[in-house]
Amino acid sequence: MNRVLIVDDEPKIVQLARDYLEHGGFEVFEAGNGQDGLRAARADRPNVIVLDLGLPGMDGLDVIRSLRQTSNVPIIILTARGDESDRVVGLELGADDYIVKPFSPKELVARVRAVLRRAELVPGSGRVETLRVLDITLDVPKMRVERAGEPIDLTGAEFTLLETMMRQPGRIFTRAQLLETLHGVAFESYERAVDTHIKNLRRKLEADPRQPRYLLTVYGVGYRFADA
Hints:
With 228 residues, the chain is an alpha/beta fold. Helix content is 40%, strand content 22%.
């Protein structure tokens, strides 16, 4: 049974999320502040963390910073409707997805399942499992990435986007198409998240993110992975 850690200081939200996640077959445990959430994440090793950014004391952004030093556990951040800048910062720090309060608990369950699908890639599907384009190599079952033999650490969302584009180098993907690979359905209001994930990928892959060699922007359309 997959384990979900909810880190939020609002008991009603925690209870609502717990009820729907448990009904969906997840084991749920919780923490009411950032420090406790960090301890629970390290001690109990959840498969997914649902993390409120507006926590007392150690806020959610600091939790992400600390976790990403040692862990790539999928993180879904919860933010207030007007906190767009916090959402962007959370994604830049390595969160995989976000959902805006007040949220649909059914959507939350769907998002949890989506990040788990990305994190639990299963070999033997008949698809090519090692991708090599230019000097970037992806070992898909092991979720390992190398550039010219040097390992690069990616989050689940970053890996999924990179794999999608590397399977069809040169093809132009719209933001909606890339978003659909992450969620299984395109949410128009979340398309800016794709830009943030691409920015993070460039920071990790490119020698100069301002002049990318691999992840190219097609202005007014989307992105493509270089084919030469």
